[in-house]
Design brief:
Blueprint: H1 2-17, E1 18-19, E2 22-29, H2 39-54, E3 62-63, E4 68-80, E5 83-95, E6 102-116, H3 133-153, H4 159-172, H5 189-197, H6 202-213, H7 223-243, H8 248-264, H9 274-283, H10 288-291
Parallel strand pairs: 2-4
Antiparallel strand pairs: 1-3, 4-5, 5-6
Length: 296
């Protein structure tokens, strides 16, 4: 009898330890509309939070402590009946092995958010069906977050997630909303996904792995070796940039990583970083003030 109780406890512990993939903080701000106290905005925020955090997005089993920390900040600028428009800022991070450090992975501001929503309407995702632009945008960023996170742990590990996001891109085009087509500019959802899946920019994804697994994750054992890994990733990004300059991926990388790169090379053991600083000034000159703080 005691054995059965123990087995039942272990089963329940294992079942409750399995979690969804994301730990996402969702914020819906409507200050710009002048109607921020309307219940529809709080209902939207709560419904999106439940949808994102309680849906199983993959077949991979995540333990509770393995969930990806991320956020989606939706800023509603105009609202009329069931029509909403605004922006969405998406961020994600991952822990650094052997430390309490958290490394930002993704930081992207999408300025083309328009959708229709009726308070209390249910949310669901079908990869083969266009439901609404809101669901398409949110699920697109869910799979982009999953893909980028996977790339930091396994070389090219996020491909299947980027392919899922690509299917959303193709399906969402029938909604005729901005951000999904090749003609929608060089900061669109289409452009971001296209670069992530393009062989031309595969060096970016390799550098993401090198930066995290062969760089940051080694720093608890050997700060010098960890710095060398990060340096290698930066130089590899510069080589990619020399072939295809001013890519959206590189801009996105430094929007997330500029502060961290400065911190990595501004203290601790000295390593040869002259070539790194030169590369940084070539590929991300807008952050030159930060690069000026790096000592070599």
């Amino acid at each position: 009898m005691n054995k059965l109780i123990v087995l039942s406890f272990l089963f329940l512990f294992t079942a409750t330890s399995i979690a969804q993939e994301l730990n996402c903080q969702v914020v819906v701000s409507a200050e710009q509309t002048g109607q921020a106290n309307l219940s529809v905005f709080k209902t939207l925020e709560n419904s999106l939070s439940e949808f994102i955090n309680q849906t199983r997005w993959t077949n991979t089993e995540f333990l509770s402590h393995e969930r990806i920390n991320c956020s989606m900040f939706i800023n509603i600028s105009s609202y009329d009946a069931d029509s909403f428009s605004g922006t969405i800022q998406v961020q994600s991070s991952r822990p650094v092995f052997g430390s309490t450090m958290v490394s930002p992975v993704f930081n992207f501001n999408d300025e083309n958010l328009g959708f229709q929503y009726t308070e209390y309407e249910p949310f669901s995702y079908n990869p083969n069906e266009y439901n609404s632009n809101l669901i398409s945008v949110v699920t697109y960023y869910v799979y982009t977050i999953l893909g980028l996170d996977a790339d930091t742990f396994e070389e090219q590990g996020g491909t299947r997630h980027f392919q899922e996001a690509n299917q959303i891109v193709n399906t969402a085009q029938q909604g005729n909303r901005a951000g999904w087509k090749v003609t929608d500019g060089n900061r669109s959802r289409y452009q971001l996904n296209n670069e992530l899946l393009s062989n031309t920019f595969s060096g970016y994804r390799t550098a993401m792995y090198t930066y995290h697994r062969e760089g940051l994750d080694l720093m608890h054992m050997s700060p010098a070796e960890g710095k060398k890994g990060v340096a290698t990733a930066i130089v590899d990004l510069e080589r990619m940039n020399s072939r295809r300059p001013n890519s959206l991926l590189l801009r996105t990388f430094f929007d997330a990583k500029a502060d961290e790169v400065e911190q990595v090379f501004s203290g601790g053991p000295s390593v040869q970083v002259k070539s790194v600083v030169e590369a940084l000034n070539k590929i991300a000159p807008t952050f030159s003030e930060k690069w000026g703080n790096i000592r070599f």
